Amino acid sequence: MATVTTAIKAEARDLNFFYSNGARALKGISMPLYENKITALIGPSGCGKSTFLRCFNRMHDLYPGNKYQGEIVMHPDNTNVLDSGVDPIEVRMRISMVFQKPNPFPKSIYENVAYGLRVRGENNKRIMDDKVEEALKGAALWNEVKDRLHDLAFNLSGGQQQRLCIARALATDPEIMLFDEPTSALDPIATANIEELMVELRSKLTILVVTHNMQQAARVSDYTAYMYLGELIEYDDTDKIFTNPGRKETEDYITGKFG
Amino acid sequence: MEHKASVLENLADVRAMIKRHKRNDTLFATLGLICLMLGLMTLMLLFWQLIADGHPKFNLDFLTEFPSRRAGRAGLLSAWVGSLLVMSVTFLTAVPIGVAAGLYLEEYAPKNWFTDLIEINVSNLAGVPSIIYGLLALGLFVYMLDFGQSILTAGLTLGLLILPIVIVSTREAIRAIPVSIREAAYGVGATKWQVVYDHVFKYSYGGILTGIIIGMARALGETAPIITIGALTFIAFLPPSPITTEPPFLNFEWLSSGFTVMPIQMFNWLSRPDHAFHVNAAATGALIIVVTLLMNGAAIWLRYKIRKNIKW
């Protein structure tokens, strides 16, 4: 484990998850997310990494019949985000998400970024303008779009759209940002831009990223978790996972013998 | 050498086979075209016949004159005003109820056997013969609720008739919105109503509008249920005007007024022995077709216009 002590931002404690058909997708997962660090989730398709990620902002609540068991506790307030007494909307206001495929709203660039603020009842034009600019700068998109903020978001390229989605997630100052395979629909240059951006964002917030791409995990993350069949097999420093994994299964996956 | 010959022979076989298969292509394309033309030509022919028969009445007087015992002077005034008023009642009832029901079923209703049952029934209702709606309306609106044989009754009847069309098209338009867009909205902390109002409704109203217009076009031509509830076939007066010059400027007496509508006027003229009236009927038929086609055209144009900026 890391020698430097880092604050824990959130922590999964014996987390189980069941889909509405009864399938148990997560089996007793316990792991911390360190503050201002990037944690990567890797593993073969269907291992539950996306399912795990989507527990953090209660995305599974949108579909009836899904069931959580266990806790995801956020610090410093010790709120269990999975508690049925905690409103998922409150959770999503603290933990934002960037999806696999860029999914901007069919609205203007400005409105896409501003939407999270509008949802919170912000109407002041000046505050809104500032926040939108700040978020677009934070997502390294400002220079490309500042002259056409009121153009339709669909007119942007795929990589720009994904950075717009990051700006949208950033505008509301979240504590944690979830990335669900954020570059799987993008070309290598756009991918490099997003990766660079994630590393920059780390100073502001805590990041959890699901990726299919092991090189990506090795490049951007500080910690890596290897999951298989709904279980957490190994969780450690990224360097350690990729150079000297503790478990044979991890090594097989990393070296491409499996998966 | 021998090998080369067999390749060439083989190639000839392959070419013959492709040619044979392509014959089926041509055959089906021709057959399809003939079927399409059969339908289209019949419609065109009918339309053309109506225009040929009715063209002497294509003038403004036809729209500004009341029906008359003399065919030459008879006009459509009471019929088209009646159609307009009935359609406005239909619009004001079917649209809010239908869109709200569609939104509820798609976004809020839990998915269980009961909502499945409702869903099947709504789709089935769209296929119920319109005269059944007429009978229902006669019992419910005319006798039970005592609305009389009025514009209100007719409007509500047609409203019921097109309600399934509005509900089904609303649901289809909503379903076209990808899950990823909803998740994006929920992801930044939107409530259900914010998602419905800011996104679902705004991205689907092109499709919803199309359904409404097509429903209205259907209602415009309906005759059977209107006859069943007892529309008048000859009226030489207009219902009281909905807008007045004195406050409160609105008047609802027209709702309980007797009325006729264009298809009924057409039916009435057609059933007269005097052939001169048949000219009027043909002109009315042409007018109904033109208005219906215009409404459908508007629906297509609106859908194109609104969907142009939405790509998924």
Describe the model.
The complex is a heterodimer of chains A (259) and B (312). With 259 residues, chain A is an alpha/beta fold. Chain A has a single domain, classed as Rossmann fold (3-Layer(aba) Sandwich), CATH 3.40.50.300. Chain A has helices spanning 49-56, 88-94, 109-119, 125-138, 142-145, 158-170, 188-201, 214-220, 238-243, 248-254, and strands at 8-18, 24-34, 38-42, 67-74, 79-80, 95-98, 176-180, 206-210, 223-228, 231-237. In chain A, the strands form two sheets. Chain A has a six-stranded mixed sheet, with helices on both faces. Chain A is globular. The model of chain A has no long low-confidence stretch (mean pLDDT 90). Chain B contains eleven helices and no strands. Chain B has helices at residues 2-54, 60-64, 77-108, 113-125, 130-144, 151-175, 179-187, 192-221, 224-228, 262-270, 276-307. With 312 residues, chain B is an all-alpha fold. At the A-B interface, α2, α3 and α6 of A face α7 and α8 of B.
Class per helix and strand makeup of chain B: mainly alpha
Q: Note the beta-strand portion of chain B.
A: under 5%
Tell me the helix content of chain A.
25-40%
Find the CATH topology of chain A: Rossmann fold
Total domains of chain A: 1
Jot down its keywords.
heterodimer; A: 259 residues; alpha/beta; Rossmann fold; six-stranded mixed sheet; four-stranded antiparallel sheet; 10 strands; 25% strand; globular; B: 312 residues; mainly alpha; MetI-like fold; 2 domains; 0% strand
Question: Layout of SSEs?
Answer:
The complex is a heterodimer of chains A (259) and B (312).
Chain A: E1 8-18, E2 24-34, E3 38-42, H1 49-56, E4 67-74, E5 79-80, H2 88-94, E6 95-98, H3 109-119, H4 125-138, H5 142-145, H6 158-170, E7 176-180, H7 188-201, E8 206-210, H8 214-220, E9 223-228, E10 231-237, H9 238-243, H10 248-254
Parallel strand pairs in A: 3-8, 3-9, 6-7, 7-8
Antiparallel strand pairs in A: 1-2, 1-4, 4-5, 9-10
Chain B: H1 2-54, H2 60-64, H3 77-108, H4 113-125, H5 130-144, H6 151-175, H7 179-187, H8 192-221, H9 224-228, H10 262-270, H11 276-307
